[in-house]
Protein: DNA-3-methyladenine glycosylase I
Amino acid sequence: MTVLGDDGLRRPPWAANDDLMRTYYDTEWGMPVRDERGLFERLSLEVFQSGLSWATILRKRRSFRDAFADFDPDTVAAYDHRDVARLMADARIVRNHRKIEATIQNARATIALRDDGGLADLIWSFQPAETPRPRTYDEVPTTSPESHALAKELKRRGFAHVGPTTMFALMEAVGIVDTHLLDSHRRGTSGVWPD
Structure:
């Protein structure tokens, strides 16, 4: 169930009390992202979020942008062992060697996709024919056949740390699926899925 806010709007519990999470939910989560850099950023942040709370990542987002050159794939793809060492010493971000290496690898894979339609075309090609219609938080799926297929294709294309759960979270975040609860004020607002 959603929570009725002081402003008269209904949101899921995770977006009801924290100002940062509420703003993210109200203005960004589930809205279409169709550009390479925007998708590379969201993909990278989902990789770092794996095993952690989204609030942790969101609070560090400005630092992640600084550390990863505003998620410019060309710049990140050129990172070497010195950059990895610099990032591992940067207490402002999540210092996980595997996730840092995966982000660099994913930047290189993003560049390689440019000759074959690009990252945005690939990710959006996995949009399902229908989107979930959850009434309660328990009805929100964590994977889908499309997120499994997307994860498999991205791995085939050289991406790392892109499992089906992480890819479903990406699909939710960038509007490919609409998992807003049916009574949320955000349901159907992306323009991708009618309510």
About this structure: The CA atoms of residues 16 and 160 lie 33 Å apart. The chain is about 50% helix and 0% strand.
